[in-house]
Design goal:
Blueprint lengths: L6 H5 L14 H16 L2 H7 L4 H9 L18 H14 L1 H14 L1 H5 L2 H13 L4 E4 L8 E4 L3 E8 L10 E8 L5 E7 L5 E3 L16 E9 L6 E2 L2 E2 L8 H30 L16 H33 L6 H33 L11 H10 L5 H14 L10
Parallel strand pairs: 1-4, 2-4
Antiparallel strand pairs: 2-3, 3-7, 4-5, 6-7, 8-9
């Protein structure tokens, strides 16, 4: 991280003895996530402008214990489920959308062993990841050509390039995925991010989510043991439906950090309207908070946010039932759930974009000053919401309603 005297950097020098013990329940973890968000929010605009590698921010997530939220309690983890995880992601994203995304992606990749690993691999990975507080990155962008996996006998090697690799430059381990050159089978593995053959390129230069370290990566003969190949036993893979749940999980991660960003935008705008927005000189009101159109706009935006949050929460509960039945979930259960995830994604995208745009209508022209930073919320949502077309999410919902079609598992559905 480049030299900077930000509030965050100062906060990290404080001995946070209240974080030494993990919270006892979900409410405690969510409260801690709000504490982290409050720290991040104090200089989010400054850090976005600096564009420095978020080393201190990841250290903050580790210090707060959020990186081990899903880890087994016997190894010092939070022992929480995805219902809590989504609420935590949403809370952190309200303070800084980039860090909310980093946390969300990390939690997905932390869970990757459960998605495709054997029971023995799951236990081993989660023990090590929790005890050592690994931070996960991933080099699995499906829009690029497949990484080639070579069977070397006792080891496998990955070679290729991915144009996006969120978090890997600040990660301890990276999830790799590629296609075995001999069989065409997909092979996932978790490897140290400092492994020989990785080159993380500092080329993420987008208008939003600027601190997610989402630049490209070159993978040149990165080698690991066959034992690291998730779900493989004696070089054979036993597929199950749960393998494909990575997409519904990551889409709900998106939903929740979009809604977190929207919540942060709305709360920041409210504070600005109360303290700084001037009433319209021809409106007849002494305070902006008394302007009827201001009241109506805020009421409309909060109502829509509450509705989107309620749907997201309901779908998270539905997904948890699938996690609880991971070894026996059916294709129909998975498909019906993906339709609901698609609906939540479409609504969250629309609501977050509307909130982060319309807040300017009720904060006034002076709120567009760079130092205010309201544009950060819009830039963050607009950038990531282009990850995959929201029209195809509505298509999944519409085709299910009209003809009962269930989405085929893909990298995006």
């Amino acid at each position: 991280m480049t030299a900077m005297t930000s509030t965050l950097t100062k906060e990290l020098t404080v001995n946070r003895s209240d974080w030494a013990t993990p919270p006892a329940d979900a409410d405690g973890w969510i409260a801690r996530a709000h504490e982290v968000a409050a720290i991040l929010a104090t200089d989010a605009v400054e850090r976005d402008r600096a564009g420095a590698t978020p080393t201190a921010e990841v250290a903050l997530l580790k210090e707060a214990g959020l990186v081990t939220l899903l880890g087994p309690t016997e190894h010092g983890g939070g022992g929480q489920n995805w219902i809590t995880a989504y609420a935590v992601i949403r809370a952190v994203a309200a303070g800084d959308g980039s860090i909310g995304q980093l946390l969300g992606y990390h939690l997905l990749w932390f869970w990757a062993a459960r998605l495709v690993g054997t029971r023995e691999q799951i236990a081993a990975v989660e023990a090590a990841a929790t005890q050592d507080r690994w931070f996960f990155g991933g080099a699995v962008n499906p829009r690029d050509s497949d990484v080639v996996v070579t069977d070397n006998g006792d080891t496998i090697s990955y070679s290729g390039r991915k144009s996006f690799s969120t978090g890997s430059n600040v990660s301890d381990v990276t999830v790799l995925e590629g296609v075995l050159s001999t069989t065409g089978e997909h092979v996932f593995a978790i490897v140290p991010s400092n492994s020989e053959g990785f080159t993380f390129h500092d080329d993420w230069d987008n208008i939003g989510q600027r601190l997610t370290e989402s630049g490209s990566v070159t993978i040149d003969n990165v080698t690991t043991d066959w034992a690291s190949a998730a779900g493989f036993v004696d070089k054979a893979f036993a597929p199950r439906v749960y393998n494909s749940l990575n997409v519904p999980i990551i889409q709900l991660v998106f939903v929740n950090f979009y809604l977190g960003i929207a919540r942060g935008a709305l709360e920041t705008a409210v504070d600005y309207t109360r303290s700084s927005t001037r009433p319209w000189l021809h409106g007849g009101f002494d305070r902006a908070v008394d302007e009827p159109y201001v009241i109506d706009t805020y009421g409309d935006l909060l109502t829509k946010l509450w509705a989107a949050e309620a749907l997201a929460d309901a779908v998270a509960v539905e997904q948890q039932a699938i996690h609880d039945n991971a070894w026996d979930v059916t294709a129909e259960e998975r498909g019906n759930h993906e339709v609901r995830v698609a609906a939540a994604k479409a609504q969250a995208t629309d609501v977050a974009l509307e909130i982060t745009t319309r807040i300017f209508e009720v904060t006034g022209a002076r709120s567009t000053a760079s130092k205010v930073g309201l544009d950060l919320f819009f830039r963050n949502v607009r950038t990531h919401s282009l990850h995959d077309p929201v029209a195809y999410k509505r298509r999944e919902v519409g085709r299910n309603l009209l003809i009962g079609e269930l989405p085929e598992p893909t990298w995006y559905s």
